[in-house]
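Re: weekly structure request thread

Next one in the queue (324 aa):
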Amino acid sequence: MRSVLHRTTTALACAAFSLGALVVAPATAIGQETEAITCNSQPGSDATKFYEGKSAGLVYDTKFRAGAPIPGLGAYVPQGIAVLENWDGSGKPIFLISEYANGGKSARIYGLDTAGREIGYVQIAGSHVGGIAVARGWVFVSGRADGKMHTIRKYKASDLVAALKRNDGKPLYQNGKARSVDGSSFLTSYDGMLFAGTFDEKKKSSMQSYYVAADGKLTEIESYEVPRKTQGVMITRDHFIFSTSYGRKNRSNIYVVDAFAKKIEPSAKCFRAPSMSEGMTTFGGYAVLLYESGSDAYAKPKPRNVIKHLHVADIATLPYFQAG
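Done, posted below.
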């Protein structure tokens, strides 16, 4: 599988991602599945952390740093994040962030440039839009779920770009019919393939990989186990890195697992993160993590941590920490 899946990096590593712009500027429930994996909970210092609320832990606070403001906060709730390369023909990439409002009755895709400036947004059909990913000229977004039935919508990247440039609030309609899948709570892409998985609060769940045809058609290939409460994932040549969270008062976890391992154990280890983490993506040599806690939807009661900026870490550092 690894011979097919080589890491997709591009001009992203060279784009000036003004890490200056991006850089200036949940959790365990009771009575649920017993986890053999204990996350590193070494205490951090509230005096040195870079976000509101109690420190999540020393590992997180030393690996991550604050990035650009998250767009759309207020009525909208951030969920997924992806990178669209060469979005306007100049070679520059942008971030795409999926967000919902009114319980999923309304949804948007926001564009954020690598200097941290909001480009605009595109209105799309309502759903929880838990994930977003870009592969082979298509933008994939989590669609509506009905019981055990999940869906993924697709949009031509060129249509999305045109709509972002217009920034007129008019809706962008999906291309064709939404694809029914086993799970679409979170999405990511790697080497031109799509990965989509299922959130489960109580037990480990699964993530499927899909071959993406030139017309955006998806063909399922493999299935992988994921930690419980998975909200997002990013993939590198060597690792699956999962963002897991549930509950505004609980800490999140970041899991590091061997890439393309069918089971998360025995390779999985994890460390604590601020509450309410969501999607993740790679940007050149950086991991970019999204949070939903800054939305007005979660203002009362106040979350453990209120985060209104993207958080950024050097990918190379993420696997190196002592297991719990």
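The chain is about 5% helix and 40% strand. Residues 1-34 have pLDDT under 50 and may be disordered.
Next request, please.
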